[in-house]
Amino acid sequence: MIARMILTRFVLFGLLLVIAILVSPRPAFAATQKQVIEFPEEELANESVLPVFDHPEAVKNRLVPTAKRLELGAFGSFSLTEAFFNPLAIGANVTYHLTEASAINLMGQTYMSGISNYGKQLNPIPGPNGQPGTTNLNIQYAPAPKYLLLANYQHTAFYGKISLTKDYVMNLSLYGLVGLGAMGVGDMTAPVLSVGLGQKFYFGSSFAFRFDLREIAYNGPDVLSGPDLNSRTSEASASEFNKKLQFGTLLSAGIVYLLPSF
Q: Which residues contact residue 120 at a Cβ distance below 8 angstroms, ignoring those fewer than 6 apart?
């Protein structure tokens, strides 16, 4: 009897639960509609554009700014193509940097006196089949290079840095040179045309090592076309020799100091 009453109650409870679920209100899902935003056609761009930069900066926060700064330097040079005379020279240069890329460079050098080892071997001039000769070339009495003066336009094509060790970084710049000047040869002065390349390695914001490689061209005396110098005891005049277009290659190395900007 008790079991039948309990079963009856469970059945009634189940029926009531089913009825409650069926009659309970269901949630309404609103249909989502795609929202369209429209703009007037006159306000839309006809084509894509990119921003325009009037003054792009390739390098920001330069460690070694050069614009409006004066650079002073001293150097030694070696003539790679000099056959007869002393190829060594010493000089100085002054550079004013108009901008970070453009500069005016003035340089002057004076050649060491004397002749090269090859020139010394021609006293006396070797005879046929390498036999000792009896005549001295005496090239030391021919017109020798005395000085070189150049005014150059300098353009810096690259500024960057190089890591020499794990913890040390050195700034550098690569530049080109083109200039005009004068070459003193013996007792004459000849106009000179020069082109070249250079590289500076900065160790700090003011000091740098400077290396230049220049090619020069000038119309000067041909020391092998003049009078017999065997009996000479003093330097011959450049006017006694034929003129010839001559080329020379100069390699120079020195140190420069950048003064503060004006």
A: none
Distance of CA 154 to the CA centre of its chain: 10
Compute the 3-state secondary structure of the chain and give helix, strand, coil in percent, each to the nearest 5: 15, 45, 40
Residue-wise burial string across 121-133, b where 16 or more C-beta atoms lie within 10 A, e elsewhere: ebeeeeeeeeeee
CA distance 156 to 149: 21
Question: What is the pTM assigned to this prediction?
Answer: 0.74
Adjacent-strand bridge partners of 253: 76, 211
pLDDT in tens, 109-148: 999 999 998 888 888 888 787 777 788 889 999 999 999 9
Element at 15 (helix H, strand E): helix 2-23
The CB-side HSE value for 39 (13 A sphere, CA atoms) comes to 5
Residues in the chain: 262
Predicted local distance difference test score (pLDDT) of residue 3: 55
245: Cβ contacts below 8 Å, ≥ 6 apart = 217, 218, 219
Domains of the chain with bracketed CATH: 63-258 (2.40.160.20)
